[in-house]
Amino acid sequence: MNRVSSTLDIGALKRLRILCISETGWFDTATVFDDIRAAGGAQSDQYAIPWPPFGRLHAENAAGFSALLEAETTDGRLRRLLFDTGWSPEWMDRRFAEEGIDQLLQKGQIEALIVSHEHFDHFWGIRSTLRHCPSIPIYVPDGFHQTGLSFIRQQGHTGALITVAADQPLVLFPGLAVVSFPMSTLLQVEGENVLYARLQNQGLSMITGCGHGGVLNLLDYARRTFTGGDRIHAVYGGLHLSPLEDWDTQRDQIVQALSSYGIAKMACNHCTGRTAVEKMLASGLPVLRGTGRHGSQTDLFLGNGDVLELE
Ligand SMILES: [Fe+2]
Ligand SMILES: [Fe+2]
């Protein structure tokens, strides 16, 4: 008996390599949250805070989130995407140089910049990308503010700017899709782009900036939407579980629930939180360890300069 599948087949990749350029949004969390409190609290407009590159408030504390995706398609083609562009232009310039991202951008070997969301630590370092490749196509989530769109233009962007429509998977190339999730979070930020990759010999993998939509929601979306989504092979990026290192029973339940997805590789970092990662390790989740280099403050999880290989 034939069953008609209602899931979306995005195609498949032979291999995907994710290089963590930087997962350190900032170096000291208390400083960032003191700055936010002084600016009026969690509901204030992030652009009103004179952080770099708009001002010099605690400039030494700014770093940023950014990753390079290098995918090999089934016909042997290599396709590269930049996922986020960090916060401090000085920090991003340094990390781009150390990892050769500057060269790849200059040679036009990175085909697009996917901005996960408008938060300062993922997006405000866009100068570091555009100075090497002003024409790079940029994908932003639905909900991006005019201030952010104007900022992209002011930084000299000359290429295509695509707003990903909410809840409509967009296949960037066979095996890789971006989904824009509606959400509202800290500092008036709305909408987050999440990437889903399908490996030909594995199930589906999910790549997040912060995962503000909730890790279980984002995984469940994959399960019901994509062919292969019933098997989540890997997760990379920020899962926003204990960014302030606080904890409660609700978060214990999330960690417990994560065990039911059969995830083979948990490459979480950034705003996941050390507390959350320790809880994951204690409950037997396969968290990949890092090397604690290039500004990453722990080797508990994949950090700056570390790589996740999927095939
Ligand atoms: Fe973040
Ligand atoms: Fe965020």
TrEMBL record:
It holds the Pfam family Lactamase_B_2. The lineage of its organism: Bacteria, Pseudomonadati, Pseudomonadota, Betaproteobacteria, Candidatus Accumulibacter. This is MBL fold metallo-hydrolase. Signal peptide: none annotated. GO terms for molecular function: transferase activity. Residues 79-183 form the Metallo-beta-lactamase domain. It comes from Candidatus Accumulibacter proximus.
